Amino acid sequence: xACGTAYQITKEKxxxxxxxxxxxxxxxxxxxxxxxxxxxxSNPAGxxxxxxxxxxxxxxxxxxxxxxxxxxxxxxxRNIIEQHLFIPIVKFLMEDNLETFDRIHNHGTWDVAAVxxxxxxxxxxEWVEKALKGSKEDEKTGFLVQINQLFSPDGYYTEGPYYxxxxxxxxxxxxxxxxx
Length: 180
Description:
By secondary structure, the protein is mainly α. Helix content is 66%, strand content 0%. It is built from nine helices and no strands. The chain has helices at 2-10, 13-29, 52-69, 75-96, 98-101, 106-122, 125-133, 143-149, 164-179. The longest helix has 22 residues, at 75-96. The protein starts with a helix and ends with a helix.
């Protein structure tokens, strides 16, 4: 994200090249990775990190960086990154970890934000709809339900004030994405 932002501001190709090269490197490996070996029984494992929550957070930041250099990338590079990194990540987050994706909790919020934002960038409307309305698109889970259930009528976040800085970020970033 930082390099994508630097590219947008300076138009210096070295920043876009860095994003391209690191994403192509991840794309060359990601599909072969098993679940992280340091997984714990209290949280579903990720592939990149010990818990899938961190994979979701990673994707929220990475998809923004990708979006910022999108026009710089060749269609061939975009195809490799999307087919071998982002599509498998979304499958992992939305299908393989369905329980987290549909969870009304900050882990679920990070998950739907990651999937929804990736859906917008990759023009996958079905991912956006599932992120907003839940995996079954029945509006029993998903981002819109989380907004209604995770906040009290006066706007207080139900998981407590100690966690607001972290837990509110995906609401803000995904809402901004939806608005744009």
